[in-house]
Amino acid sequence: xxxxxxxxxxxxxxxxxxxxxxxxxxxxxxxxxxxxxxxxxxxxxxxxxxxxxxxxxxxxxxxxxxxxxxxxxxxxxxxxxxxxxxxxxxxxxxxxxxxxxxxxxxxxxxxxxxxxxxxxxxxxxxxxxxxxxxxxxxxxxxxxxxxxxxxxxxxxxxxxxxxxxxxxxxxxxxxxxxxxxxxxxxxxxxxxxxxxxxxxxxxxxxxxxxxxxxxxxxxxxxxxxxxxxxxxxxxxxxxxxxxxxxxxxxxxxxxxxxxxxxxxxxxxxxxxxxxxxxxxxxxxxxxxxxxxxxxxxxxxxxxxxx
Length: 306
Description:
Blueprint lengths: L7 E6 L7 H11 L3 E5 L7 E8 L2 E8 L2 H16 L11 E5 L4 E5 L4 E2 L9 H15 L5 E3 L2 H15 L6 H13 L5 E6 L8 E8 L5 E5 L6 E3 L6 H6 L2 H11 L8 H26 L2 H17 L1
Antiparallel strand pairs: 1-2, 2-3, 3-4, 4-6, 5-6, 7-10, 8-9, 9-12, 10-11
Helix pairs in contact: 3-7, 4-5, 4-8, 8-9
């Protein structure tokens, strides 16, 4: 999901007060009692995230406490229903889900967040993440959608109207002009993560392959959906050095010269515009001003590249 967890050890406290009463009751019924090891919640998003111990199990509890977080929790539950169980190691495994009260419980994966760790910029870790992403993208047959880009273009048009006062006038005008020049076409849709970046990867140095590279896992599927595969590369394109993106693409087994041709470039441009503007709107709405500035920077870079 957007934003990052803020670790806060609760010292084995009683059930967290940040859960709604219905959620706390449902969790207690299902787990038969549990100990909160750490509160990893993301308050700006209205999402409660708890690291808990229940008997011999170590679990991650996610609870939606706002309409926005309920929408994203629903996406994450759908990812567990549709594709994650068949992917095995490197992906979270569901313990149970209760969409009616807004709860998702998964088995805790070993490791620490790549972001902020010594492995955050490691090319081999990016390559491993690319291989995991390839498995996710291949978890269901691709589907040709002749209307997807038209829907995205319509949404971006509405977003640009909403973001008129949130963007520099020159950048807003440039985005409107680029959108008007695009001709939507058919694209292949596959299962995508939606927020692929090191803050949503776990690295486990205690498990390494024969080359000494630690195990990697992808987590946080709150933006899971069927999209073009390249949508998962947008944030990395704007946030990390080219060599790291190249390593991830190597693991993903993507041809080096993509995007090639007008259709590919147009699809890539549309996705970059959408994610840039959506970031500004969402981050402004929840008061995350640095993240809104990140969205503006994404838009400036997109416009400069065209």
